[in-house]
Design goal:
Blueprint: H1 4-14, H2 18-37, H3 44-53, H4 68-75, H5 80-88, H6 103-123, H7 135-143, H8 153-163, H9 167-190
Helix pairs in contact: 1-3, 2-3, 2-6, 2-9, 3-5, 4-5, 6-8, 6-9
Amino acid sequence: MITREEAWKLLTQYNKEPFHLRHALTVEGVMRYFARELGYGDQEEYWGIVGLLHDLDFEQYPEQHCVKSQELMRRHGVDESIIRATASHGYGLTAADIKPEHQMEKVLFAADELSGLIGAAALMRPSKSVQDMELKSLKKKFKDKKFAAGCNRDVIKEGADDLGWTLDELMEKTIAAMRVDEAAINEACEKL
């Protein structure tokens, strides 16, 4: 399996924008958190790498998102299970029509969009942090369709349903996940 170091090297080969790299690091952290919380601690590295690479093609190939990434990863010898898992987060949204089936794929599908919304909401806070974010505040932002308009609320709702969670549960758990690595991600992004 590809190492975390190799995955980062691959990601930065196709992504240069700090925004995209921050998002990849955030989703990596969220996926690692959920692996531990949901009883997949022995697969934490795998879940994290899937989170790190999930948008590999988005910066350079937005029109081929989740399709081109499969080609790029195969070219670099990435394991088919990672290729499938990363492509599944575009289910119903991209030409890569791979339905999330494994618990990890369902978490990625649900948390990817939501982490973007939470990140945008955090930037609006005086602290610029998720550390003091409350569910009530996030729910207000979620209901405001003009706020972070690029975040697909239907995907977030569908993701919660697929996991068998309420929307509130998904939001609370994802806020908690983002709190864990926020300082480390900020530090890493300062070095980009």
